[in-house]
Amino acid sequence: MKIVVDTENGVPPWRQVHAQVIRAATTGALPEGTRLPPIRQLARDLGLASGTVARAYRELEAAGWVATARARGTVVTIPSGRPDRAALLGAAAAEFAGQARDLGADLETTLDAIRMAWPH
Question: CB under 8 Å, gap of 24 or more: what pairs does 82-91 form?
Answer without folding.
Answer: 82/26, 83/26, 85/26, 85/27, 88/22, 88/23, 88/26
